[in-house]
Amino acid sequence: MKATVTGIFPASTSAGLTFDRPATLTAYPAPDWQLEAVLRGPAQIDLAAEAVANGHRFLVPASETAGWEPGDYWYSVRATSEGTVVEVEAGQITIKPDLAQLDAGHDGRAHVQRVLDAIEAVLEKRATIDQEKYSINNRELWRTPIPDLLILRDRYRSELRRMKAARKGGLFNQAVRVGFR
Hints:
By secondary structure, this protein is of the alpha+beta class. It has 3 helices and 10 strands, in the order ββββββαββαββα. The protein has a 5-stranded mixed beta sheet with strand order 1-8-7-3-4, with no helix packed on it. The protein has a 3-stranded antiparallel beta sheet with strand order 2-6-5. Strands 9-10 form a two-stranded antiparallel ribbon.
């Protein structure tokens, strides 16, 4: 019997913060069932939930999560009882770095945003320069043609829009409503 449960683990968390995730699994109540999570990615993280009444709770103090290696992890949440192991949730979680441990000057923008900003800066500077190529002492410099930069800018703008929509959980930037009869 496999129960599909969603929402025990978030899509992301940050190292250096307390990780506190309750789980109420009516098919696998505590204390008859124990709950554990295995995470695999840049490091190996194994978590055991504590029993809280007939529910479960993953509670990891900030002092422990501070040592978590940032990156993308794949996880499996498993309920166990008397030799039976059942996966109740699986997915991917991103562990972000502990912001308090990062150096000054940290650039938290996504890659897509950084590239788009760089392309737009080049376009802005190029608005006052009319030459695509020039030579000095038998050395040539070719600049990327403005039409090519505009195509790249549009691609990265589109990718950034998709990324922001996915973060909001929207489909094509619209709320999706579902009704049941």
